[in-house]
Amino acid sequence: MNQPPNLDPVAVEPSPEALSARLKELALLFLKLGAIGFGGPQAHIAMIHDEAVARRGWFEEDQFIEGVAICEMLPGPASTQMGLYTGYLRAGQLGALVAGLCFIAPAFVILVVLSWAYFRFQGVPQIEDLFLGISPVVIAIILGFCWKLSKKVIKDWQGVAIALAVLLFSLIFRVNVLLLFVLAGVVGLIVYRPTASPSSGRSSAWLAPLLPLTQAWPTLLTTVPAETLAVSSFWGLERIQDYVLPLFTFFFRTGAFIFGGGLVIIPLLETAVVDDFQWMTRSEFLDGVALGSLTPGPVVITAAFVGFKVAGALGALVATVGIFTPSFLFIMFASPFLLRLRQNPWIKSALKGVMPAALGAIAAAAIPLAAAALIQPTLPRTVVATTVGLAALVALVRFRRPTWQLVPAGAIAGLLAGAIV
Fold it and tell me: What are the residue boundaries of the structural domains of the chain, listed by start?
């Protein structure tokens, strides 16, 4: 009988000198991967496998495969969690911390610089032309992701019903997406419940893990009215004291519910930062997603763009720490238990409900974002935006072009077309 791989870090505690060498090796490796990590989460995971397993032989193939399965199950960006997992196996909790921070750092620095440039030169005609091409490409990326996710998570009519229900309740009734995810998990427990359970005499026991979430529902439904913010100064010193707690708590909560891939961040953020908190306009948010797609590393780093608008570079740092903290906590402190948790039939049932809900939420968020990207002030610009979006969608779905190629191509198309129309 096959034994599950050992999820404990190194069996023999390394000496301080050996640990220091391992941490340095992890730092250099993940700084490199974070700087060249274009192509999306699957490309990131393939790079980690090539470096950690194939080239360095840090651990066995079955350990890597189980790590991928665990990270796909957890909320949060799977590629970042795989980096954390690699660091954990190599050098324990400190190794996970070093690997994760170094993997995120390059994308964070790049996005802070891009965010500053975006808000500094916002309104310049050439910048508007640039996003005339980039924004439709982002819509194509979102729709292409929906198509791929639908083939993965829609297995029956119940999944279709969950996805459509979340789409309608999110788009029309503006129900909070986190609440919809919780409800979808409950539906999954009911619809996909295990056929037999040894604890049938305690039929309500499986509800216990949901009690903290149900108690949190009023918080999930709460909105904070505010006037639309002007952009902060670069460092955000004048605002950070007022916004450090709201930024961290909001992004921490969001990071704990990113099921189905990094683009799930879009519905989780869009309604809150645009409509509820009014931290930015819908067009700014869409442009922020585009800039996040331009950087290496996970698209979840888009949180830094929102944080920069609210409270400068310090706000970007707080938002980034908040959204990635759940992933760090899961891997650093729960790794020995995650493999067993993954086999729990009730967890599997809940996830079968949450994954179609993620699809419906992304589709619901894509509709108003598509309107902002495609409906331009003049008909010629609308035609250009629509054409670029359709071309990007065909390139993505039919010809499987990587997203990091499509975004610069859209930018060039926007600049060229903007000079004409």
Answer: 16-106, 107-194+206-420
